[in-house]
Amino acid sequence: MKAASRSILFSVLPLLFASAVHASICSTKGIPLVRDINALSQSNYGRGGLSHITVAGSLLHGLKEVEVWLQTFAPGIRTPIHRHSCEEVFVVLKGSGTLFIAESSHEKYPGKPQEFNIFPNSTFNIPVNDAHQVWNTNQDEDLQVLVVISRPPVKVFIYEDWSMPHTAAKLKFPYDWDEKCFHSPKDEL
Ligand SMILES: *[C@@H]1O[C@H](CO)[C@@H](O)[C@H](O)[C@H]1NC(C)=O
Predict the structure, then answer these.
(1) Which of 91, 133, 148, 152 could form a disulfide with 100 if both were Cys (CB 3.0 to 4.6 A apart)?
(2) Which domains does the chain have, with CATH numbers?
(3) Where, by residue number, does Zn(2+) bind (predicted)?
């Protein structure tokens, strides 16, 4: 092999390898039926104090109707104030905190939210399009929740505060953990 073609080969190989790895992470083919949650990819997606695992997802596992997340919030860590047009169920596995929710008011903005204490083995569901925020207000312990959403992948509208008009809330789509596989080629269609 000539030196020139060899150097081209060696500069192209890592790219091929990277795209193969990327394709396999985002491919819904050949995924084991029973998976070890500890072996799934886990990240904070640039938000310190958060751990997110997509346990079963639309983009990662080809689910159509629901998606399941396992999330851990360090003390003081919270979600943004946000809404989405899907249903969402939380199960608190560990820790405690506060749910802030502005139940469907007919105002132009969410307004002052109601506050609810959340605790181990508590569960709650967020009605479609209600602005809400989950906050680990416990200074001593992580808050761990299992989350189920309908209609994945989630389309999140983020509010800067509770008085921001609904129409000004900013769409984040694909959401942080969906970004990586959102633009990769799909197996089906
Ligand atoms: C949660 O509920 C399960 C089932 O009843 C029980 O085994 C477990 O100990 C409970 N955990 C806590 C922290 O209360």
Answers:
(1) 133
(2) 31-182 (2.60.120.10)
(3) 82, 84, 88, 132
